[in-house]
Amino acid sequence: MPTPGTAEVGVTTGFLARRVGVSPTTLRSWDRRYGLGPAVRVDGRHRRWSPEDVAMVQEMCRLTASGVRPAEAARAAKERARGRGTAALATVDGQAARGPGARPAPPPAPDAGRGPDPELDAGSPSGLPLGGVRQECRGLARAAVRLDASAVQEQLAAAVRTHGLVTAWEEVMVPTLRAVGRKWESSGDRYVEVEHLLSWHISATLRHLYVSWARQNHRPGTSPVLLACLPGEQHTLPLEALGAALAELGVPALMLGGAVPAEAVIATVRRVGPAAVALWSQSRSTASLPLAQHVAASRWGVRGARTQSLVLLCGPGWSRRSGGPGLLRPPGLRDAVRALTSRDAPGTPPLGPLGLPAVRDDSALRPTHV
Predict the structure, then answer these.
(1) Edge-to-edge strands, sheet with 225-229
(2) Phi, psi of 60 (to 5 degrees)
(3) Using CA atoms, how far apart are residues 144 and 119, in angstroms rounded to an integer?
(4) How many angstroms separate the CA atoms of 121 and 347, rounded?
(5) Does residue 117 surpass a pLDDT of 60?
(6) Which of 358, 342, 162, 354 is nearest to 250 (CA)?
(7) Residues 202, 204, 206: CA angle, nearest 5 degrees
(8) C-beta separation of 215 from 171 below 8 A
(9) Cβ(283)–Cβ(230) under 8 Å?
(10) How far is 252 from 244, CA to CA, in rounded Å?
């Protein structure tokens, strides 16, 4: 029995849109701009997508999710769906052929390879305000908007593999998260599922990397870096990125997670004697300078050789006036990793275990952003 929305000649545009996770407007735009449309129209008006047409659209979605530009992806998808093989990606500038019996493809628009992407254009109903970003951001955003979990995970793994964790975080993950967040804020409750899907997979990627690298680069007997969100703060992703980056370099990290009570932070510092403590605050309502100062002033060890932790004030919640002895405010992930691992930077103070800098006041640095 045919499923709802199907007929002998194929499925409707609405049914296909729901199946592949794009809007009907996007499908119509692909047809108009790239000739990526159904081979059959009922009564000359109603679109019906055959199994071959569905396969073509699915290939288009797969390619654009991997970062291929829509015009190039459309040519390759048509070649593959019409049985011409997969060599189209190597010859995307050639004329795309269509299968027997297909209606002639309309000529592409003059800016087909450079114009706005209907899926990502901030002015379209389903667009995201990405701006000038890496191509990988666009592929990740396309996959997230479609709720294509497998493609999201593949994109994240490829970004880390290609660029390294720090660059992948700063130039792929964060810009896409920000775009999704801005879209969510400007459209009521819409797109919250996209933000949740993307955040979950980024967290899963970071945690997997942390566990893998921590196991490979385990250094017993060394003091860890303590990572904690301030009381009331639930944004853990930046600290998860820092923990994974440190694990890759063989620096042990102890993650306490979100909304850690002040008493728990202080008790943990006393128990483990961390070489450094990173405190994350996303908003000013959660920043607690007294807690940070208390942690920075805490000392432990035998008499005559007591030591203390370097404290990193991470996140946009800290005001520009936040500072004091033993407090460091790195602008981003790369700066935080450098502060915790650098041995040879000019003018750095004496180094302690793990190559961590001794306590210093560097309150002029800007607060870290997501």
Answers:
(1) 253-257, 225-229, 276-280, 310-314, 327-328
(2) -60, -45
(3) 11
(4) 46
(5) no
(6) 354
(7) 70
(8) no
(9) no
(10) 10
pLDDT, tens digit, 9 for 90 and up, residues 223-278: 899 999 999 999 999 999 999 999 999 899 999 999 999 999 999 998 888 989 99
Which of 309, 340, 304 lies closest to 326, judged by CA? 309
Are both 243 and 342 inside the same structural domain? yes
Give the integer Cα–Cα distance in Å for 237 and 206. 8
- What gap in Å lies between CA 61 and CA 211, rounded to an integer? 32
Please provide the DSSP assignment of 166-222 as one string: HHHIIIIIHHHHHHHHHHHHHTTTTTHHHHHHHHHHHHHHHHHHHHHHHHHT--TTP
Domain membership of residue 240 as a residue range: 219-355
**pLDDT 10s digits, 72-99:** 888 888 888 766 434 433 333 333 333 3
Domain CATH number, residue 211: 1.10.1240.10
Q: Is 354 left (phi over 0), alpha (psi -120 to 50) or beta?
A: left
pLDDT of residue 193: 86
